Amino acid sequence: MESPTDSSPIRPRDRVVRRLAALGIPMEYLEKRYEGIIDFVNGNGLLLPEIVSSLLPTDEDVAESIQDASLRSKKWMCLSMKNQFRESMVWLQWLMFQGEPTNTLKNLEDSSVEQRGVCGAVWGSNDIAYRCRTCEHDPTCAICVPCFQNGNHKDHDYTIIYTGGGCCDCGDATAWKQEGFCTKHIGSEQIRPLDDNLANSVGPVLDALFICWKNKLFAAECIFQENMRATDCGAEQRKAANELTYVVVEMLIEFCKCSDSLLSFIARRVISLDGLLDILVRAERFFSDGVVKKLHELLLKLLAEPIFKNEFSKAFLGYYPTVIHEAIKEGSDSIFNKKYPLISTFSVQIFTVPTLTPRLVKEMNLLDMLLKCLENIFLSCAREDGRLLAAKWGSLYDTTNRVIEDIRVVMSHDVVSRYAIHEQKDFLRAWLKLLTFVQGMNPIKRETGLHIEEENEAMHLLFVLSHSIANIHSLLVDGAFSVASNEGASCLPYAYKQDVDDGDSIRHAKVGRLSQESSVCSVTGRSVSKATEIGSDSIYHSIPSTVIWLIQECLRALETWLEVDGGTPAALQSLSSPNSSGISDSNFLSIKKTLYNIKKGKYFGKLTGSSENHSSQCSSPVYSGNRASDEMEIAKNIGYDSTSSSAEIDPVACDYMGLDVSMETDNGIGVVTLRVLSLSEWPDIIYDVSSQEISVHVPLYRLFSLLLQKALRMSYGESIMPNITNACLASSLSAHVDFFCHILKGCNPLGFSASVMEHPLRIRVFCAQVIAGMWRKNGDAALVSCEWYRSVRWTEQGLELDLFLMQCCAALAPPDLYVKRIVERFGLLNYISLTLERSNEYEPVLVQEMLTLIMQILLERRFCGRNTADSLKRELIYKLAIGDATHSQLVKSLPRELSKSDQLQEILDRVAVYSNPSGFNQGMYSLRWAYWKELDLYHPRWNSRDLQVAEERYLRFCGVSAMTTQLPKWTKIYPPLEGVARIATCRETLKIIRAVLFYSVFTDKFTESRAPDGILMTALHLLSLALDIYLQQNGSGGVEHHIGDSNSMLDFASEAITESLNYTAGNQSLLSLLVALMRMHRQDNENNYMESSKSSFSPLIESLLKKFAEVDSQCMTKLQQLAPEVVSHLSKSTSNTERRTSGSASDSEMRKAKARERQAAILAKMKAEQSKFLSSISSTADDSKSEAEVSDSDLEHEAEGALQQSCSLCHDPTSKDPVSFLILLQVSD
């Protein structure tokens, strides 16, 4: 052998021979090179590990290469080292395949041309791939271009995408449907095992190589952890491990490309060596980027083997928190995205597998690990008050987004969501705890001084975070409402019965959904014959116990939040002070002890108390704050009996005062002990949106709103309510009333509604102020928050849920206090003072937004009255009213739930006309003329620009103004929310309407009016809606007690104004203001010789006045004095339409008596005429028969007549006062 010289370095092959000679292998074998080493190993198999180790370069060889690099270049050193390791791989391959490796690999490749299982082609950044929604199992799946071209995707819904990494899913049955496989991939289940002879020769060599590889990796990791990179020894070892890993991975990738059988064999050998897979997962921490990229490519290919994927996922979960910790420690996403790319590359490969993820959740506590990582991120970015600091958190956005997205993907599996809800309640508590970091995050405060120049770049990222959290909430709620038939049984019974010891036994058998009939199904499938059984118990039992528990946990979290929130603690302290509370602390504790062991049968049942003092304090609490003016009505609506004797304890009243009455129940759900939400008085919460901090991020409220929405729909949705017949409606009314009391155990309607409505209301006020221009000096911060909140993408998860929560509060709260709170938050208490001077420049916009909000609270039915078809129709009309649209534009504009409806195309064809594409013009849908009449002017997603466009198009298509013709109507609403109607007819709302009318009448043309035309029109709409509610509730006498006494509205209409005495207008009332306004606009129209479409108020006002006259005699009398021309046609006829029950009793009786007299006269006349007609028929029949026949015939006809003559309405033959007769005529022979 030649000795090395400086001019001619030793060749890699010679270095290998030298190391083998040093091991003691005879030269006769070494002279034969590759064949010789094969012969030696076959005769000395026990020396194989030492031989494999000698084939690899030693540390001295690496040191020589580094020394040579000092004289040449670093690039030359890397190339030299790679050549040495590649030469070693050649020798190893000869040993593996017992001959020429190229020929063996070629034979394997040829034999598996038609038997490839999974494609596994690895993508880089911005590579082209195909996504087929018809074939994919989840949205993260895609296939490469060749697989798409070789497959059959005719008539499929597919798109071309640019990848950000990952691998082709063709052949993977857990990601792609089998019918979508291309012709070259048959699935991993069809992979044949490696030939035994080949396995016996390859296996031992691979094992020996992997042992050496693992030792090198551990040494490199130790050097990295001990920071020994500066030392020569440490540098040599790390470079050796780096280069060895590169060439080993390079060789294994080539093997995997040749044969799936060899791929599966390699994957199993990797996991058989203890510790190797774990160190490979961690290798990105101490290897160069090129090596890491190559290693990840190999791991992606090996995932095609199910056994490897299972073991890799365990190592992956063990490494996951380490990466998150490093990112938090660094305080930047750069380390997560660039230095540690394994998490972002492989999480989607692991967590989307339906057969694997449930196993990880149960066996590896996957959800707990993810929540812990998210908690650590939030803790590192939290302010002193526990809320996220946006500026600091923005640097960890990608890290946070990765963790939250992984939680969403894991929870998207139906089995996992059920398991988490029903068996992992600690997970839910931990999640609610995490929401407190996001609740109220990034608060902003209005600037009144200098304009803010610095902008928060992370502000839009907070909305993306809230959007991701909302997606998880949807999965949580769906899981809570999907109840297994056997409560307490594991929701993952079959996902964990597979034995991983036998590799061949695990192939990707899909986890099916639970097929057992749940209690939800039994409710929704209830037959009509059982409708009469629907009562409080059946409605309550339709809601799963887990949902009730989750609602209680939300209430507990909200309670904690409210106790520290601005404005609420002060109100709580004032209401719970010794001078204002009816219950002392000692009595409070004694009542809790008395009721501790009591179990309730029904929630509203009476319980006998053991102490007279306790019961009296429970059933008759002392109020000292702002008490509800209609307290008895609220008590009636919530099931509280104010007449209960002192010897009884009302558990409802006790629960309202924070007593845990049902700490132990049959289903394990106890009433949450609350303080703020159980206040028995309306708290005076002091808060000003324009001067205090405000945040639009309230995920706790939205989760709670989503739960209430689903519970309400489950109990009263379209699949339930049609089964409730008129016969059982009355018996179920109490269940409707008690719905909220059953769901909101431990809450008082006063404390609950006042507290829960607060934050959604603040956000609406904030948006109104931004629109009005009050937050200009805050730069883009306020504007961006408002635009995101009102955007189409956010509305479904934010604004609409907030609005629904306000509707729930409106149904429970005293209406006057509720509306007054709205006026307070908008800062418009001065508006109803009837002072003509405008308070500030922002007032008109604020008044308009406030009236619009009240209208939306009254009219919105998306979650509480509309079925899917109606909601789809409304959304399509809303979109098409703005302009014609393509099919894709319409689908994107729909809420996510509606966009997936099977009825979409049917309803779209019904409401729109399609124009075929021509030239460069796309096919467009246009709204049909008939459906313009169904345009909803108070849709929650309207903005001023789109609404103006819709109004102009309405005028162009229909020829009239939408505002004057599309009057709002009270529509069907779920029974528990019928109390919302009281908002329209309460005095505070009528005061607002009267103030608008007053300003419209008495403001001269040279002064800026406090009630422009837009405000006036909305106020008239609100008044029209109030009248419609009054007419409907008096026309159906079964629901009046839900809505309340709205006769006060008619009294208020004639009530004189006292606030305007300082003006020369004289005593005015709501009716007189309407009359004056009608005449003003009528005069203006006559002066202008034509009526403007935007100011045609007089016909609308006249129709309102006629409604007042029709429904009430006092209003009729008043209007006969004020505007006789309006009611002249009504006064001449009998007032048959007067419906006011509290009017004059004598007038009512007199009208009824006259009506009965007229009816009796008509009936008598009809009876006489019909009797005469019957007599004539009988005489005609007698003349044509013989005397004997006539006798028999008379008897027969008399019998028939007695049976056949009956009233045509009631069909009662014995009726004494029939309206008309049914007579059977028979033709004679």
From TrEMBL:
Biased amino acid composition, Polar residues: 1130-1147
Pathway(s) this gene product operates in, as recorded in its UniProt entry: Protein modification; protein ubiquitination
Region (Disordered): 1127-1158, 1174-1215
First and last residues of each zinc finger (UBR-type): 117-187
Top-rank taxon, per record: Eukaryota
InterPro entries in UniProt: E3_ELL-like, UBR1-like, UBR1-like_WH, WH_DNA-bd_sf, Znf_UBR
Function: Ubiquitin ligase protein which is a component of the N-end rule pathway. Recognizes and binds to proteins bearing specific N-terminal residues that are destabilizing according to the N-end rule, leading to their ubiquitination and subsequent degradation.
Family designation: Belongs to the E3 ubiquitin-protein ligase UBR1-like family.
Name recorded for this polypeptide: E3 ubiquitin-protein ligase
